[in-house]
């Protein structure tokens, strides 16, 4: 039996996810961006919500916790490092912990930077990575709370996961990310191919998520901060990759 993932839009540009363990019938919402969207997905799939897995404290990821918990009695698991910022958490987890959903198991990986306590959930058996705002297709989340070094180290841990991992991120930002990436890495053929694919998907009104991690490793400049050509682009050849990452992040912020 496997883990099934249902993908649906929420809010303005969020993605919502239901992760359903076939063996037990347990179903988790990955983050809680919008109660109405999650209820609609549950009705469409016929699944019953048993769990909510929270990645970080931003309102567009936690707003529906109270309503869903009251309606379904769902168990809410989230980052211990942000427990003081998130109401309704039942189980606190951190880096290296494991979360079970029936027969499915999620590894918790710390990815500080977007927020200091940001975590992601990785289901190794099926190759599902729920990255929220730590890693986007062709981008990463803004560095609201963290610093470049730890954020880069967290992203390297995600980059080390298998190439066939499917990534389910928090937002539909891929087309804008592609425009920036091409501006700093114009000779990257993998990036050019992904940008063309993204343009076709968006023109057809289709989402760009989920995406294969292996393809993103080749095309996402934030996962390539240790590539010499990106250091040269910013005139800092030979610099520590964390400094290159900082330059890329600043560049995207001002793009």
UniProtKB/TrEMBL annotation:
Task: Give the record's keywords alphabetically.
Answer: Hydrolase, Metal-binding, Zinc
Which GO MF terms are attached to this record? hydroxyacylglutathione hydrolase activity; metal ion binding
Which Gene3D superfamilies does the record associate with it? Ribonuclease Z/Hydroxyacylglutathione hydrolase-like
Task: List its EC numbers.
Answer: 3.1.2.6
| Signal sequence coordinates | none
UniProt-listed GO biological process terms: methylglyoxal catabolic process to D-lactate via S-lactoyl-glutathione
Q: Per its UniProt record, what SMART domains does this chain match?
A: Lactamase_B
Question: Which residues are recorded as binding Zn(2+) 1?
Answer: 56, 58, 114, 133
Q: Where would I find the Metallo-beta-lactamase domain in this sequence?
A: 13-171
Under Pfam families, the record lists: HAGH_C, Lactamase_B
**Looking at the record's lineage, which domain of life comes first?**
Bacteria
- First-tier enzyme category under EC: hydrolase
Metabolic or biological pathway: Secondary metabolite metabolism; methylglyoxal degradation; (R)-lactate from methylglyoxal: step 2/2
Cofactor note text: Binds 2 Zn(2+) ions per subunit.
Cofactor(s) named in the record: Zn(2+)
Key word Magnesium present: no
Q: How does it assemble?
A: Monomer.
The entry's function note states: Thiolesterase that catalyzes the hydrolysis of S-D-lactoyl-glutathione to form glutathione and D-lactic acid.
Q: What is this protein called?
A: Hydroxyacylglutathione hydrolase
